[in-house]
Automatic annotation (TrEMBL), chain A:
A Pfam short name: TOBE_2
Record keywords: ATP-binding, Nucleotide-binding, Transport
Ranges for domain ABC transporter: 14-242
Coiled-coil blocks: none
A Gene Ontology cellular-component term: ATP-binding cassette (ABC) transporter complex
Nucleotide-binding recorded as keyword: yes
Protein's UniProt keywords contain Transport: yes
Entry protein name: ABC transporter ATP-binding protein
GO molecular function: ATP binding; ATP hydrolysis activity; transmembrane transporter activity
Automatic annotation (TrEMBL), chain B:
Species the sequence originates in: Phycicoccus endophyticus
Keyword Transport: yes
Lineage, highest ranks first: Bacteria, Bacillati, Actinomycetota, Actinomycetes, Micrococcales
Identification of the protein by name: ABC transporter permease
Record key words, sorted: Cell membrane, Membrane, Transmembrane, Transmembrane helix, Transport
Main location: membrane
Region feature Disordered, mapped onto this chain: 1-24
Length: 379, 305
């Protein structure tokens, strides 16, 4: 294996092949396979401790996998050192060099690669992230948002084959985060580099990424476009982590053409077969809160419905959220857009009907822990 | 000076909201009140003796009455101090500089290992670095004298192997520099350790991520980040080492005497040596201050100034 001090040439998709990383007895990343197409904006989404940052660090070369391979295109980068990889990282805490000016921070990479006119390149990168006026300051003299931009410029300036972002917006306030989300997306489109973005914020992942991989316990639970993930979660974890879901444990009764019918806590529901990840025995039935309607009267028509009691009403402006207790004791949440001229004037204690179009329902394999977590979140 | 600047900020600096006005008159005095005991202590035991010493350094001797002086403005004492004792001044600064250099060379890897490599042994090592302070500085130097003595284990082994050109270790400048290095090593280790320990590990990783190999990362990232510690360590080593006389006294010979030894003997052993001793003290102080000033200006970081 070449151990030269130069940067390896490697172009193409980023691939992880059955990568495992153990720390002592703890498996942080468990037999992970991943393909990130060149030029895409890819998000690794998961709760803290799910192995997403470890995965990122293995791509950067800051950790070596216990087993498996990391490749870019056809070049196997496993075992190579961080400085040999055509990969740069935007660290969570920015990790700017405190003793260098902003310009020198950004010029650090090009200087190490002996690129001529590193300073001019740095200025260009600073202009791209709109902080060129701060070039001669020290990092300590910058705000969090400005430091974030400098960290991004410092990585971007090298035009890496893969740019890694480790919770880059985590330390910023909501408004700035929103603004930078849009901007990151713009920059990625502009430079056309592969971005791998690690975050625990599902909204952030969905806003920016072309493809989101949801990680849990060192494995990828589900991967796909944000809309796909949201529309049809394949596991109870994804149903809860990507947006919220009303879940209920039930038993499959049988099939009727294109539909599956199930008995969920005393109510018979139907689910399109194409949306049923679990089709036999005990399953977890789910429906998104905005896909259900809260009604005073028993609904007419072909939808599924269930009776309940209003537990809580929160008005959020664009929508009103109702927490409704079902006869089984499960609490579901329902978002109603405030479209009507006369608002539905419901109060806690009111008897209501919850109704939904079965085409929005889904089933996932039963996972007691996740079902409990969902109940906790809404109850 | 820095302390006073902070007092100014805490007391009256910055616009104060009107609501605070009632509290202000009382609170303004708090910083000064807190400074009072220490300030008084320094005034009585530092400033006053220093002024006294300065007047002594300008006194003249009564002709024919050794040991008796009268108040005067006699710059001759300073001239004597500089001309008669120039070699000792040179040695003081040279030995202190050498000791600082060797202490740095020894301390940096140690501090680096403590900060990054030893894991849970860190506290044990910290205690080991501090442990010598539990015994007297002079006792430890006397112990070194015995260890390095001609009949001691080190010198006799080296002599048996014919590896010691001069025949002995003590009474050489090398022994004095070694003693200084040993005695002030913790003052170099601790500030460097503190600055390395405080350094964000991710920043060092960022060096590697940005195409710098291990050595380049150390040179361009780790070392500059620990500069405040190195600066503090070198000052804490150089300043007391330049004024030290115990090591030269116990481990050296006549030709390795430092200014401290001359001051000591002029004060306590030479009749009528007081004014010259005082002049020597002031000259040494001025020299060190000037050197430190230039050094800090050249290598100083904002954190220290």
């Amino acid at each position: 294996m070449a151990r030269s001090s130069g940067v390896r040439e490697a172009t193409g998709d980023l691939r992880l092949e059955s990568v495992t990383k153990s720390f002592g007895g703890f498996t942080a990343v468990d037999d992970l396979d991943l393909l990130v197409p060149r030029g895409s904006f890819f998000a690794l989404l998961g709760p803290s401790g799910c192995g997403k940052t470890t995965t990122l660090r293995m791509v950067a070369g800051l950790e070596q996998p216990t087993s498996g391979r990391v490749l870019i295109g056809d070049t196997d980068l496993t075992g190579s050192r961080p400085f040999e990889r055509p990969v740069n990282t935007v660290f969570q805490s920015y990790a700017l060099f405190p003793h260098l000016t902003v310009r020198d921070n950004v010029a650090f990479g090009p200087t190490r690669r002996r690129v001529r006119e590193a300073g001019a390149l740095a200025d260009e990168a600073l202009a791209l992230v709109e902080v060129d006026h701060l070039a001669s300051r020290k990092p300590a003299q910058l705000s969090g948002g400005q430091q974030q931009r400098v960290a991004l410029a410092r990585a971007l300036v090298n035009r890496p084959e893969v740019l890694l972002l480790d919770e880059p917006l985590g330390a910023l306030d909501l408004k700035l985060r929103r603004q930078l989300q849009v901007e990151l997306k713009r920059i990625q489109t502009e430079v056309g580099l592969t971005f791998v973005h690690v975050t625990h914020d599902q909204e952030e992942a969905m806003t920016m990424a072309d493809t989101v991989a949801v990680m849990n316990h060192g494995r990828i639970e589900q991967m796909g476009a944000p809309a796909e993930l949201y529309d049809l979660p394949r596991t109870a974890f994804v149903a809860n982590f990507v947006g919220r879901s009303n879940l209920g444990a039930g038993t499959v009764l049988g099939r009727d053409g294109e539909h599956l019918s199930a008995e969920v806590q005393g109510t018979t529901v139907t689910v399109p077969l194409s949306r049923a990840q679990a089709r036999e025995g005990a399953v977890l039935f789910g429906i998104r809160p905005e896909k259900v309607r809260v009604l005073r009267e028993a609904p007419e028509g072909t939808g599924d419905d269930v009776r309940g009691t209003v537990l809580d009403v929160s008005f959020t402006g664009v929508a009103t959220e109702y927490l409704v207790r079902l006869p089984s004791g499960t609490v579901w949440s329902c978002y109603e857009q405030n479209l009507d001229v006369d608002p539905v004037d419901l109060r806690p204690g009111d008897e209501v009907w919850i109704s939904w179009n079965p085409a929005h329902a889904f089933t996932v394999p039963l996972d007691e822990a996740e079902a409990a977590a969902a109940a906790e979140a809404t109850g | 000076m820095t302390a006073l600047a902070h007092v100014g900020q805490a007391g009256g600096g910055g616009p104060t909201p009107p609501a605070d006005d009632q509290e202000r008159p009382g609170r303004r005095w708090v910083p000064y009140l807190l400074l009072l005991p220490g300030g008084l202590w320094l005034l009585v035991f530092f400033v006053v003796p220093l002024v006294q010493l300065f007047t002594v350094s300008l006194q003249s001797q009564f002709p024919g009455y050794p040991g008796y002086y009268y108040r005067d403005v006699n710059a001759g004492n300073y001239l004597r101090a500089l001309t008669d004792f120039a070699p000792q001044f040179g040695r003081s600064l040279l030995f202190a500089a050498l000791a600082t250099f060797f202490a740095f060379v020894l301390a940096y890897p140690l501090a680096y290992a403590m900060a990054f490599k030893v894991g849970r042994w860190r506290n044990v090592m910290l205690i080991a670095v501090i442990a010598p302070f539990f015994t007297s500085f002079i006792l430890r130097t006397v112990a070194w004298r015995q260890i390095l003595a001609d009949e001691g284990p080190v010198a006799s082994t080296l002599n048996a192997l014919h590896l010691l050109p001069g025949g002995h270790i003590t009474e050489t400048w090398a022994a004095v520099v070694a003693g200084l290095t040993y005695n002030f090593l913790p003052f170099m280790v601790l500030p460097i350790y503190a600055s390395l320990e405080r350094a964000d590990h991710r920043v060092i990783e960022a060096g590697g991520d940005l195409y710098a190999n291990g050595f380049t990362t150390f040179r361009t990232v780790t070392l500059p980040m620990s500069a405040p510690g190195v600066l503090a360590g070198t000052l804490l080593t150089f300043i007391p080492a330049a004024g030290d006389y115990v090591n030269a006294d116990l481990l050296g010979a006549d030709d390795t005497k430092m200014v401290g030894n001359v001051i000591e003997s002029q004060f306590f052993k030479v009749l009528g040596g007081f004014p010259v001793a005082a002049a020597l003290s002031f000259t040494l102080m001025a020299l060190i201050l000037a050197m430190v000033f230039v050094y800090v200006r050249r290598f100083g970081t904002e954190e220290l100034l």
